[in-house]
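Reviewer comment 2.1 asked that we show a complete input and output for one of the modelled complexes. We chose the uridine-diphosphate-N-acetylglucosamine case, as it is the one discussed in the main text.
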Amino acid sequence: MKKIISLIGARPQFIKEAIVGNVVRQMNAWQHVVVNSGQHYDTNMAGIFFEELNMPEPEYTLGIGSGSHGAMTAKALEAMEKVLLKEKPHALLVYGDTNTTLAGALAAAKLHIPIVHVEAGIRMEPRTMPEEINRVLTDRIASVMCCCSALGQKNLINEGLTKNTHITGDVMYDLYCHIEKRFAPEKLCQQYGLKPENFVLTTIHRDYNVDTEENLHGVVEGLVAIQKELHLDIVWPIHPRARKMLHQYNLHSLTKSLQLVDPMGYVDLLSLAKACSFVITDSGGLQKEAYYAQKRSLVIMPDTGWRELTDMGWNILSAPHKQDMVPKAQTLQQDMPYIKHVYGDGQAAPYIVKTVLNFLT
Ligand code: UD1
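Response of the prediction step:
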């Protein structure tokens, strides 16, 4: 039986592995060795997903923790090289665009171990964003590229990557379909004292928004203005990085009218996404998950990898200040016909597993 190492480490990767790992085991496709780099380590950033999504304990936990981009990538690269040398897998599976993704891919490429990249071909400006660097470089050295949509594949072809690119759909939609019955929007609204359809669900954590005082200040002002002018409550499960920066820039007092809560697990977050009026986020994952929950998103970024959703007008990009955020949030309150299946039919994981099996044989 072939052996594949699946490398995870940050919040969105736990979610993706939950569904892919499950399908691998169901199909008895290969020996699936899970390595957790430990890039995210707080219980509500990491452990909670293993519990609620019934994921087995990873075979390895590397404990790289936080640090500068270079330090994190270097620690993960060194630790992954050791694991790959010991395990000698037939391929390495990596997800998305984090420092963990790039470190794993680099370690594998140098050891001539084929790389399977799930969520390949996403491209967005600015090219200097850490995630963009991670995804471009990972695709460049991957042997199998699994794209969520035709646009991802087109981006790869434009860069001359024409071999072994596949449109598989999005594994996050698979997971959404699997777990949807466990969502409890009313219970969560009660828990946070919110009225269904009368609040905005917000997550902001990208360094683009939180690492510069001007942008973080602008986002907070924008949220407060939306709350006032649109008469909506705002609940913000706050990433530790954003909380730290709010304190560092002395912006915490401005957030008093907003409901800042600890980061939450998948089921709770998606339950709130189902119940909200709309979403404000800079998360790549949540802007797509909101769409699955049939909710529109104001995306506080200069660009998005999920252009299908902005092209059809479902999601809207906004600059990080109130002059742009408020009128666009008003537009989001309008109803719009829902177009299904932009990122596949909920069968991406089985498709990916079959694609990898074909590649291995
Ligand atoms: C990372 C990914 C990003 C993804 C996000 C999901 C990179 C470059 N970025 O961003 O693409 O959308 O994960 O959440 O890999 N921290 C804690 N506890 C934790 C984790 C982080 O306190 O469990 C704090 C630390 O201060 C850390 C900071 O958050 O320095 C940022 O964490 P990091 O892993 O560098 O990047 P994210 O912003 O989470």
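Residues 197 and 276 are 5 Å apart (CA to CA). We note this here for comparison with the apo prediction described in Section 3.2.
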